[in-house]
Write a structure and sequence with these properties.
With 239 residues, this protein is of the alpha/beta class. Helices cover 44% and strands 15% of the residues. It contains ten helices and nine strands. Helix 9 crosses helix 10. The structure holds fe (ii) ion.
Protein backbone atom coordinates (compact mmCIF):
# COMPACT_ATOMS: atom_id res chain seq x y z
CA UNK A 1 0.00 0.00 0.00
CA UNK A 2 3.08 2.25 -0.24
CA UNK A 3 3.56 5.41 -2.21
CA UNK A 4 0.08 6.84 -1.97
CA UNK A 5 1.07 10.14 -0.42
CA UNK A 6 -1.35 9.96 2.50
CA UNK A 7 -1.40 12.84 4.99
CA UNK A 8 -1.86 11.88 8.64
CA UNK A 9 -3.66 14.50 10.74
CA UNK A 10 -3.37 12.66 14.05
CA UNK A 11 -0.46 10.73 15.57
CA UNK A 12 1.63 10.41 18.71
CA UNK A 13 5.04 9.89 17.14
CA UNK A 14 7.13 12.35 19.17
CA UNK A 15 9.23 10.68 21.87
CA UNK A 16 8.65 11.29 25.58
CA UNK A 17 5.97 13.97 25.38
CA UNK A 18 2.78 11.94 25.89
CA UNK A 19 1.56 8.31 25.87
CA UNK A 20 2.92 7.67 22.36
CA UNK A 21 6.54 7.00 21.38
CA UNK A 22 8.89 6.55 24.34
CA UNK A 23 12.22 6.91 22.55
CA UNK A 24 13.66 8.27 19.33
CA UNK A 25 14.10 4.71 18.06
CA UNK A 26 10.45 3.98 18.69
CA UNK A 27 9.46 7.23 16.91
CA UNK A 28 11.40 6.21 13.84
CA UNK A 29 9.88 2.71 13.90
CA UNK A 30 6.41 4.23 14.02
CA UNK A 31 7.15 6.60 11.15
CA UNK A 32 8.57 3.69 9.14
CA UNK A 33 5.31 1.80 9.78
CA UNK A 34 3.23 4.78 8.64
CA UNK A 35 5.45 5.08 5.56
CA UNK A 36 4.88 1.38 4.79
CA UNK A 37 1.11 1.83 4.65
CA UNK A 38 1.31 4.89 2.40
CA UNK A 39 1.77 8.02 4.52
CA UNK A 40 4.22 10.67 3.33
CA UNK A 41 3.21 13.57 5.57
CA UNK A 42 2.68 12.92 9.27
CA UNK A 43 1.45 15.54 11.71
CA UNK A 44 2.65 14.83 15.21
CA UNK A 45 -0.20 15.78 17.56
CA UNK A 46 1.02 15.36 21.14
CA UNK A 47 -1.70 15.42 23.78
CA UNK A 48 -2.23 18.75 25.47
CA UNK A 49 -4.16 17.93 28.61
CA UNK A 50 -3.90 19.78 31.92
CA UNK A 51 -2.17 17.70 34.65
CA UNK A 52 -1.90 14.52 32.54
CA UNK A 53 0.39 15.52 29.67
CA UNK A 54 2.25 18.64 30.76
CA UNK A 55 4.98 18.66 28.06
CA UNK A 56 6.09 22.22 27.39
CA UNK A 57 6.38 23.90 24.01
CA UNK A 58 10.16 23.72 24.34
CA UNK A 59 10.18 19.98 25.11
CA UNK A 60 7.92 19.33 22.13
CA UNK A 61 10.07 21.49 19.84
CA UNK A 62 13.16 19.56 20.98
CA UNK A 63 11.49 16.19 20.34
CA UNK A 64 10.37 17.37 16.91
CA UNK A 65 13.90 18.48 16.02
CA UNK A 66 15.34 15.13 17.17
CA UNK A 67 12.88 13.12 15.07
CA UNK A 68 13.36 15.33 12.03
CA UNK A 69 17.12 14.81 12.27
CA UNK A 70 16.58 11.04 12.40
CA UNK A 71 14.19 11.13 9.45
CA UNK A 72 16.65 13.11 7.33
CA UNK A 73 19.03 10.17 7.33
CA UNK A 74 16.69 7.18 7.72
CA UNK A 75 13.48 8.14 5.96
CA UNK A 76 13.97 11.29 3.88
CA UNK A 77 10.73 10.71 1.94
CA UNK A 78 8.71 11.39 5.08
CA UNK A 79 7.67 14.90 6.03
CA UNK A 80 6.91 15.58 9.70
CA UNK A 81 4.87 18.54 10.80
CA UNK A 82 3.55 19.65 14.16
CA UNK A 83 0.08 20.04 15.62
CA UNK A 84 -1.39 19.13 19.01
CA UNK A 85 -4.31 17.12 20.33
CA UNK A 86 -6.01 19.66 22.56
CA UNK A 87 -8.16 18.12 25.26
CA UNK A 88 -11.41 19.95 25.96
CA UNK A 89 -10.47 21.14 29.47
CA UNK A 90 -9.48 24.29 31.35
CA UNK A 91 -6.28 24.66 29.31
CA UNK A 92 -8.38 24.59 26.18
CA UNK A 93 -10.73 27.26 27.57
CA UNK A 94 -7.81 29.50 28.57
CA UNK A 95 -6.28 29.13 25.14
CA UNK A 96 -9.60 29.83 23.45
CA UNK A 97 -9.87 33.06 25.44
CA UNK A 98 -6.52 34.41 24.28
CA UNK A 99 -6.58 32.61 20.89
CA UNK A 100 -3.36 30.75 21.65
CA UNK A 101 -4.49 27.21 20.81
CA UNK A 102 -1.65 25.21 19.28
CA UNK A 103 -2.61 24.78 15.61
CA UNK A 104 -1.21 22.63 12.80
CA UNK A 105 2.04 24.26 11.63
CA UNK A 106 1.10 27.37 13.63
CA UNK A 107 -1.65 28.09 11.12
CA UNK A 108 -5.46 28.05 11.45
CA UNK A 109 -6.60 24.47 12.02
CA UNK A 110 -6.43 22.86 15.47
CA UNK A 111 -7.21 19.31 16.62
CA UNK A 112 -9.49 18.89 19.63
CA UNK A 113 -10.66 15.82 21.53
CA UNK A 114 -13.61 15.59 23.90
CA UNK A 115 -14.27 13.38 26.91
CA UNK A 116 -15.56 10.04 25.55
CA UNK A 117 -19.31 9.59 25.83
CA UNK A 118 -21.25 12.83 26.10
CA UNK A 119 -20.36 15.83 23.94
CA UNK A 120 -20.38 19.12 25.87
CA UNK A 121 -23.57 21.20 25.65
CA UNK A 122 -23.24 24.15 23.26
CA UNK A 123 -20.16 22.56 21.68
CA UNK A 124 -21.23 23.65 18.21
CA UNK A 125 -21.73 27.27 19.39
CA UNK A 126 -18.22 27.38 20.81
CA UNK A 127 -16.74 25.84 17.66
CA UNK A 128 -18.75 28.22 15.50
CA UNK A 129 -17.35 31.15 17.50
CA UNK A 130 -13.83 29.95 16.80
CA UNK A 131 -14.68 29.49 13.14
CA UNK A 132 -15.79 33.14 12.92
CA UNK A 133 -12.35 34.08 14.27
CA UNK A 134 -10.77 32.36 11.26
CA UNK A 135 -9.86 29.08 12.98
CA UNK A 136 -10.82 25.59 11.82
CA UNK A 137 -11.72 23.12 14.57
CA UNK A 138 -10.78 19.52 13.74
CA UNK A 139 -12.59 16.97 15.88
CA UNK A 140 -10.54 13.87 16.75
CA UNK A 141 -12.27 10.46 16.69
CA UNK A 142 -15.90 11.68 16.61
CA UNK A 143 -16.94 8.00 16.70
CA UNK A 144 -16.14 7.94 20.43
CA UNK A 145 -18.69 10.57 21.39
CA UNK A 146 -21.77 8.42 21.71
CA UNK A 147 -24.35 11.17 22.29
CA UNK A 148 -23.11 13.00 19.24
CA UNK A 149 -23.12 10.07 16.82
CA UNK A 150 -26.63 9.08 17.92
CA UNK A 151 -27.98 12.56 17.20
CA UNK A 152 -27.87 12.93 13.43
CA UNK A 153 -29.08 16.52 13.42
CA UNK A 154 -26.53 17.67 15.97
CA UNK A 155 -23.80 15.74 14.23
CA UNK A 156 -24.58 17.59 11.01
CA UNK A 157 -24.44 20.93 12.83
CA UNK A 158 -21.01 20.02 14.23
CA UNK A 159 -19.81 18.84 10.80
CA UNK A 160 -20.66 22.28 9.37
CA UNK A 161 -18.24 24.03 11.76
CA UNK A 162 -15.59 21.37 12.36
CA UNK A 163 -13.74 18.78 10.31
CA UNK A 164 -14.51 15.26 11.54
CA UNK A 165 -11.47 12.96 11.53
CA UNK A 166 -12.16 9.31 12.35
CA UNK A 167 -9.50 6.88 13.59
CA UNK A 168 -8.43 4.30 11.00
CA UNK A 169 -8.25 1.59 13.66
CA UNK A 170 -11.94 2.16 14.41
CA UNK A 171 -12.71 1.59 10.71
CA UNK A 172 -10.63 -1.56 10.70
CA UNK A 173 -12.40 -3.29 13.58
CA UNK A 174 -12.97 -6.92 12.75
CA UNK A 175 -16.49 -7.19 14.10
CA UNK A 176 -19.65 -5.21 13.54
CA UNK A 177 -20.06 -1.89 11.82
CA UNK A 178 -19.36 0.72 14.44
CA UNK A 179 -20.07 4.46 14.37
CA UNK A 180 -16.75 5.21 12.61
CA UNK A 181 -17.88 3.23 9.57
CA UNK A 182 -21.26 4.95 9.60
CA UNK A 183 -19.57 8.35 9.70
CA UNK A 184 -17.55 7.43 6.61
CA UNK A 185 -20.31 5.74 4.59
CA UNK A 186 -22.75 8.60 5.32
CA UNK A 187 -20.18 11.07 3.99
CA UNK A 188 -20.06 13.05 7.26
CA UNK A 189 -16.43 12.20 8.06
CA UNK A 190 -14.04 14.61 6.36
CA UNK A 191 -10.87 12.59 6.85
CA UNK A 192 -9.33 9.54 8.52
CA UNK A 193 -6.08 9.43 10.49
CA UNK A 194 -3.81 6.95 12.24
CA UNK A 195 -3.89 8.18 15.87
CA UNK A 196 -0.82 5.92 16.14
CA UNK A 197 0.55 5.47 19.67
CA UNK A 198 2.89 2.52 18.98
CA UNK A 199 4.34 0.77 15.93
CA UNK A 200 2.12 -2.24 16.69
CA UNK A 201 -0.89 -0.10 15.71
CA UNK A 202 0.22 -0.57 12.09
CA UNK A 203 -1.98 -3.63 11.52
CA UNK A 204 -5.22 -2.03 12.64
CA UNK A 205 -4.39 1.14 10.70
CA UNK A 206 -3.75 -0.92 7.56
CA UNK A 207 -7.07 -2.70 8.11
CA UNK A 208 -8.85 0.65 8.26
CA UNK A 209 -7.24 1.78 4.99
CA UNK A 210 -8.14 -1.53 3.33
CA UNK A 211 -11.73 -1.22 4.55
CA UNK A 212 -12.12 2.24 2.96
CA UNK A 213 -10.71 1.03 -0.34
CA UNK A 214 -12.83 -2.10 -0.42
CA UNK A 215 -16.05 -0.46 0.71
CA UNK A 216 -15.84 2.92 -1.03
CA UNK A 217 -13.07 2.62 -3.60
CA UNK A 218 -9.71 4.26 -4.14
CA UNK A 219 -11.22 7.68 -4.88
CA UNK A 220 -12.57 7.75 -1.30
CA UNK A 221 -9.14 6.81 -0.01
CA UNK A 222 -7.62 9.77 -1.86
CA UNK A 223 -10.34 12.12 -0.62
CA UNK A 224 -10.12 11.04 3.05
CA UNK A 225 -6.36 10.58 3.27
CA UNK A 226 -4.88 13.06 0.78
CA UNK A 227 -7.16 15.81 -0.57
CA UNK A 228 -9.24 16.61 2.49
CA UNK A 229 -6.37 16.48 4.98
CA UNK A 230 -4.44 18.92 2.76
CA UNK A 231 -7.41 21.30 2.68
CA UNK A 232 -7.85 21.01 6.45
CA UNK A 233 -4.18 21.86 7.03
CA UNK A 234 -4.63 25.18 5.23
CA UNK A 235 -7.75 25.93 7.28
CA UNK A 236 -10.47 24.95 4.77
CA UNK A 237 -13.43 22.84 5.77
CA UNK A 238 -13.92 20.30 2.93
CA UNK A 239 -17.50 19.93 1.60
FE1 LIG B 1 -4.79 10.93 19.73
Amino acid sequence: MGGKGFVDLHSHVLPGVDDGARSLDESLLMLRALHDVGFRVVCATPHQKADTFPATTEQIAQALADVRRGLATELPAMELSLGAENYFDEWFYDRVQDLSLPCYDGRKAFLVELTPGAAPPRLEDLLFGLRTKGLLPVLAHPERYRDLVRDEERLQRVARVAALVVDLAALGELFGSGPARQLVTSGLAHAAASDMHAASDKRSIARGLAWIEKKLGSAALVRLLVENPRRILVGELPD
